[in-house]
Amino acid sequence: MFMNSNLFEPGKTKGERNFVQQAAKQNQRFDGRRPNECRDVQLTFGSDWGTVAVALGETKVLAQVTCDMGAPTVSRANEGKLMLNVNLGSVAYLDEVQTTHDQRSLTLNSLLERTFRSSKCVDLESLCVAAETHVWCVRVDINVLNHDGNLYDASTIATLAALMHFRRPDVTFADNELRTYTEKERDLVPLLFLHYPVSVTYCVYKTSHQPIVDPTLLEENAADSVIVLSFNSYQELCTLNAGGTAPTNVRTIMQCARNAATRSKALVDFIRKALAMDEERRAQGSAQVQGFLALLGEMPHKLSFRNLMQGDLKQESQAPASNSQMEVESVKKPVEEKELKAEQPKQKAGTPMDTSSWLPQEEKPQKLAPTPTGAAMSKSAKNKQNRNKNKAKKQ
């Protein structure tokens, strides 16, 4: 007996898609969030360096970083290696047809490689011990424990936090001899970063012009288009991945980019604060998180974004309505506001967004020369006939 296990995944049936589309049209979400509101991010650092568990709502990801000494590539003899590997085998209903499962893994793995490897966030030259002979090979294993939507954002947060938390042993290379020091002999060395990329995912529906940030699995499967934006702490765009059938214009994408840049900067600051708290706890000699179940359970070592970044959340809640709503406002304004606007046409209701620097300017229509009238046309025709007759007489 053959069974399509894809039907057990939320958001795959036609009824669920229509239901989510109608909810998006009314700017409503099933978990009570606003369209521009994200779920809470929780970090838990393990006892080993480079072991981090990330919980984005019900989406849970475990990242672990390891390193080993190896030979460099021929084209880049003085640079180390950074390898990323994603494992989706822990999610039961995603382990369906082998081709579909492999496609999900390859898509997620390629997006992570574009974010971290192609953008060159890690200084690979610092991983070189001896050119053309010995370099550090850093490997990041991302294990998906539970998938409830927005897996890419959870994976990027886990990868960045694990790389920043990781420490490698110190080595020396002299007289063609490689010596690796233990933690007791020399302090462990952290990785060097050039920038810190973090991604933000949006879902777009045909029934609504308002994109939804941080979608759940139901919202993600029912979406018509998905936009993934990766920014670093300097608010520089690292990667952009947009695909689907929903039409999007420049204004919508640029507004998503501005909000994603602010969100990415706040997430990087949160990871830095969490790392500082973990270093203080290790310096004090307090008990570390031991075991796999301790990483996923409710432990006092779990660090929450809402608790550490309350100031940033207040700023986001006090943001103007023009940033949260892209183009069309579905809420009807009362008649009194319309009357006030009619009485005071010169007064602006809010500070409009300056779009002169990043939106294409509309070309002003050029003034056409006045066309000659019928009488003028007849006069010019008679003049031409008279000139032709005069020329014929002279000849």
Low-confidence stretches: 1-5, 319-353, 357-362
Query: What best-fitting shape do the alpha-carbon axes yield?
Result: extended
Number of strands: 15
Number of helices: 11
Instruction: Kindly report the average pLDDT value.
Output: 79
Order of helices and strands: HEEEEHEEHEEEEEEHEEHHEHHHHH
Helical content stands at 25-40%
Summing up helix and strand content along with how strands pair, one would put the structural category as alpha+beta
Give keywords.
seven-stranded mixed beta sheet; disordered N terminus; 395 residues
Structural account:
The strands form 4 sheets. Strands 1, 2, 3, 4, 5, 6 and 15 form a 7-stranded mixed beta sheet that branches. A hairpin with a 2-residue loop joins strand 2 and strand 3 (59-70). The chain has 11 helices and 15 strands. The chain is an alpha+beta fold and 395 residues long. The longest helix has 35 residues, at 250-284. Helix 2 (98-118) packs across helix 3. The model is unreliable at 1-5, 319-353 and 357-362 (pLDDT under 50). It has helices at residues 14-25, 98-118, 151-165, 217-222, 250-284, 292-296, 305-308, 310-317, 321-324, 335-343, 374-394, and strands at residues 41-45, 51-56, 59-70, 81-87, 128-130, 134-146, 167-168, 171-174, 177-180, 189-190, 198-205, 208-213, 225-231, 237-244, 303-304.
